[in-house]
Design a protein that fits this description.
alpha/beta; 4 domains; globular; binds thiamine diphosphate
Length: about 600
Amino acid sequence: MEKHFLTGNEAVARGIYEAGAVFASAYPGTPSSEILKEVSQYQEVYAEWATNEKVSLEAAIGVANGGLRAMAAMKVVGLNVAADPFMSISLPGVDGGLLLVVCDEPGYYSSQDEQDNRIFAAFSNMPMFEPSTSQEVIDMIRDAYALSEEFKTLVTLRMTGRVSHSKSVVTFQNRKEAQPVPITKAPKVPLPAAMVKMIENAKERTAKLTELSNSSKWNKAEYYDKKIGIVASGLPYEYAKEVFGKNASYLKIGFSYPLPLKLIEEFSKNVEKVIVIEELSPYIEDSMKKSGIDCIGKEAFEKAGFDPYTGEYSVPMLKKTFLGEEVPFIPAKKEQLIPRPPALCAGCPHRGTFYALKKIKNEYDVLIHGDIGCYGLGAIGPFHAVDNVVCMGASISMAHGSQTAFDRAGMSKRSIAVIGDSTFYHTGINSLMNAAYNQSRPVVCILDNKTTAMTGHQENPGSGRLIGGEEREPFELEEVCKSFGIHNITVVDPTDLEECDKVLRKALDSKVLEVIIFRYPCALKKLTTQEEKAFPKRAKAVVNQEACIGCKVCLQSIGCPALQYDETSGKVQSNAACDGCGICIQVCPVGAIGKGEK
Ligand SMILES: Cc1ncc(C[n+]2csc(CCOP(=O)(O)OP(=O)(O)O)c2C)c(N)n1
């Protein structure tokens, strides 16, 4: 038995491999992104990036409907995109093993929402497991597939970012090939007559799963001192053990939907008082209180001055709340802190697009709808070129909506959408189809950096590679747009500022839907053979120290990390991070920046 040190996400890959899964699909998003790349290391499991989470789950459902084991993985808000197949599969169910891995993110370090997806399990009446260590991830996956096949239902493994990214020791087992499950004869079609039976079956399933949850090894009481009994799930269970040690007893909830309320009641009778420790919503606490089981939950944290409904829990937080112990906060020395606001990378092609958009924004009456990706940084300094962002794909639909309303109201205001290539293929494509068919006329800017940069360069239909690295012909965005009957499509190099300005002005003055594709690969992308030819390496920028007047226009207008101000000389210098995009050369008012070596 080999021992290894794995992150929760690596353990997911190992878990589905050992459990005999044959298919895995995902759309990237922190904290789940690493899962699929890890899966792709196992030859036995076919892995692919889906264009979005709904597609990913539906593909996995298809595999399970064929009697085989599959997994779909996504980040917390990915489940919103996949909510239709997720909710809809609850009644008809599946034949083969179907696992959904969803990585929640208390603290929303990189998500547009902090929702607690345990609620989704209760909403859909489908079982959920919640691991707190990497070994549990693997073992729960094995059980999840068995449960999925036995009850013909999707099973969700809900992780949180801390579990996804923390490492702990696991023991490897050999892969056990799963036998294909015979496919049920009756078609799984949600016709009204069939639904009556399906609803009955689902109720029966929930009753049986509730019994199972009450006796499951994943819901386990550990008795030490019985003055305090702690009910906890996920990582907060580990925090609680670190804080209370043997001064409390524990009921760890690992099979968290259906909740084992009988077991919780029994546990609460065996201890003097019960404390519930769970991040985000009071999912366990509310159910206990509704069932008449007395407990202390979120209010204890509130009394201690915390907001327990948002963000992560921590050991110091528990210590302060329950032991009154202040963990000393060591303030950082201000003089040692270097301000590092988030910035586009050196050489990022989005920089040119936002420089041009900012200029336009100062001159035209425009509403700029942004989207989710590295280009979200266009909303902050030095560009301030985005007015609002909602969720993936929303920029084009919002621009369509606002432009239609402005035009109907006789206003001259123009609407602009700014969206990345991966986000376009994710859901923006539907929005563009809608705008084109309904004949509205926003200006749609697609920032085509040929990759899904923000989440770590995952492939998408325009990136020219598959997950294993093999090259394939990319889709051409202009052809996709043309197929919607859009005629005004312009491709521009975002690092050519004059051209960007010209193209944007022309589009804003136009009376019809305009698509501008700002195309240049991400500075950090490993280029495909085709891209290497189309985008040859460029010479780095060099600041002529004699000519530089230290006006800082370059620093203030483009915020490039490859430029820095030297206090001693009072001049700007370029550094090794320079990628040669040449944007600084174009913004310098005195022509002090030129090209150096490649
Ligand atoms: C529903 C949903 N799924 C996934 C994510 C994670 N995510 C944030 S931005 C992004 C894609 C960014 O790629 P692209 O649009 O090409 O822009 P880039 O970062 O390359 O500029 C992803 C997958 C998310 N925020 N929401």
